[in-house]
Amino acid sequence: MQLKQLVNISAALAAASCALLGQQAQAGTVLDDWQFNSAILLYNETDRVSAAEGVFTARGDFGDDKFLNLGLVVDALTGASATGAVAQPYVQSFTRPSGRGSYDVAAGDTPLDDTFHDTRVQLDASWEQPLAPNWRVSGGGHVSKEYDYLSLGLNGSVARDFNQKNTTVSLGLAYSHDTISPEGGIASAFAPMLLRRDFADDDSYQAAFAATRDRADDTKDTLDVLLGLTQVINRDWLMQFNYSLSVADGYMTDPFKLVSVVNSNGVVQQNLYESRPDKRTKHSLFWQNKLHLSGTFLDASYRYMWDDWELSSHTADVKWRLPMGEQWYVEPQFRYYQQSAAEFYLPFLQQDEPIPQFASADYRIGKMSAYTLGAKFGTKLAAGNELSFRIAMYQQTPENDGVVAPGVLAGVELYEKVTAVMAQVSYSF
């Protein structure tokens, strides 16, 4: 819930892992028919969130083109997370979302909750096999658990080959059911953040805090549909085109995020818990090309996403694998991302204006651009095993979408850049 803008670390790392699964296990062992990949990722934002993640995948060959895929992901997140409240030219005090404890933010600083921490464990399993000549099916599921979030999911796909297996059409379906149980419960829409110092004693504070809570937990259901077309253009060129649809229904508000209410001078009068719609429909188009160019390999892709929150995004990603002798290779990467703001994104609320039905000051759904610049180094080892290292820098730049900052807000940073460094080690055998 806290870090969906962490460039989807789990998905990206799992994809990198799967790319290495073509290596065969050493013959003559009890694991002849299994392929394994392991990876460790470290992610660190300047003065904000740090993450450490480990991934282990296994692919078993049971003959007749039947395969079992297993996966384990463990990650730990710590650091400071932006609350959504605006900076002020004076010290601000905040209550933690649990209602227990408080913290102060220095003058001019972006309010960050510095006690953010979480650990997540995810298990995946799937089975794939032929269904008939030129037909292939797969099915599986996942379970993911963190401190205040549980996700259960099922997925399946069917693929049909045409044109002497040079053309493949596929259809995939996935369903997930998530339960959100934040510490302290779920706040009512636009409930005020209360401060212990404003109450005569702890009992009166606790009673007032309980009155701002609506329920202990809530759920969200998501259905994803993927239509894909893969085409072999020639012996050196493979192209893929996908359309995906995602329909979510349920609790999609971030229970930890605030939105500040300011007066005509830009001074905060109170901080309210945000509120988002309980439905979201997303569409995306994805186009990828893999080319062999004079001994090098180019992987270029583009994705366009749009939804009924009026948020749209463009993502371009280019990787170019270059050989360095017989054993080593280097793969530079550049990724660019740009998105518009959701229709209910507001960096703050004006005191003299009515509160809208929905509002969020979470910069992750605001107007922004971001880029990733990195490189991967890999080598072939004995028995076909592979070892690789990746280092990358990520910078995210929130942007003003035409909002005029009144009074003191003109003198503080409302759209602070986020810079992160990522390091990854992968080993396949």
Q: What is the count of helical runs?
A: 2
CATH H-level superfamily title: monomeric porin ompg
**Low confidence ranges:** 1-28
Rg computed from alpha carbons, rounded to a whole number of angstroms: 24 Å
Reported by name, the CATH topology is Porin
Strand order of the largest sheet: 1-2-3-6-7-8-9-12-13-16-17-18-19-21-22-23
Pfam families: DUF3570 (PF12094)
Protein name: DUF3570 domain-containing protein
Keywords: Signal
InterPro entries: DUF3570 (IPR021953)
What secondary-structure arrangement, pairings included, does this model have?
Layout: H1 9-18, E1 34-45, E2 50-61, E3 67-82, E4 92-95, E5 102-105, E6 112-132, E7 135-146, E8 149-162, E9 167-180, E10 186-187, H2 202-211, E11 213-215, E12 218-234, E13 237-250, E14 258-262, E15 268-273, E16 279-293, E17 296-307, E18 312-324, E19 328-339, E20 349-350, E21 368-380, E22 386-398, E23 418-428
Parallel strand pairs: 14-20
Antiparallel strand pairs: 1-2, 1-23, 2-3, 3-6, 4-5, 6-7, 7-8, 8-9, 9-12, 10-11, 12-13, 13-16, 14-15, 16-17, 17-18, 18-19, 19-21, 21-22, 22-23
Pfam families: DUF3570 (PF12094)
Signal peptide: 1-27
Keywords: Signal
Characterise this structure.
- The chain is mainly beta and 429 residues long.
- It has one domain (9-428): monomeric porin ompg (Porin, Beta Barrel).
- It has helices at 9-18, 202-211; strands spanning 34-45, 50-61, 67-82, 92-95, 102-105, 112-132, 135-146, 149-162, 167-180, 186-187, 213-215, 218-234, 237-250, 258-262, 268-273, 279-293, 296-307, 312-324, 328-339, 349-350, 368-380, 386-398, 418-428.
- It is elongated, with a radius of gyration of 24 Å.
- The model is unreliable at 1-28 (pLDDT under 50).
